[in-house]
Amino acid sequence: MMFTGIESHARELREEFRQHFMNISRIMDCVGCDKCRLWGKLQTHGMGTALKILFSDI
């Protein structure tokens, strides 16, 4: 698994993933086209949700 090993390192990796997804979501706020912004945010949130489900047992 990606987040196995030393627990403190695993927590750092999870937090880094979370920060990257939040950053992508903030970047999507700058997209001028409302339709493109909506679909981009929807896809990003979908990927984030999928990762939460995959790594929920950690």
UniProtKB/TrEMBL annotation:
InterPro entries: Ero1, ERO1-like_sf. It is found in: Endoplasmic reticulum membrane. It holds the Pfam family ERO1. GO terms for molecular function: FAD binding; protein-disulfide reductase activity; thiol oxidase activity. Keywords: Disulfide bond, Electron transport, Endoplasmic reticulum, FAD, Flavoprotein, Glycoprotein, Membrane, Oxidoreductase, Redox-active center, Signal, Transport. Its cofactor is FAD. Its main location: endoplasmic reticulum. It is a peripheral membrane protein. GO terms for cellular component: endoplasmic reticulum membrane. GO terms for biological process: protein folding in endoplasmic reticulum. PANTHER family: ERO1-LIKE PROTEIN, ERO1-RELATED. Belongs to the EROs family. May function both as a monomer and a homodimer. This is Uncharacterized protein. The lineage of its organism: Eukaryota, Metazoa, Ecdysozoa, Nematoda, Chromadorea.
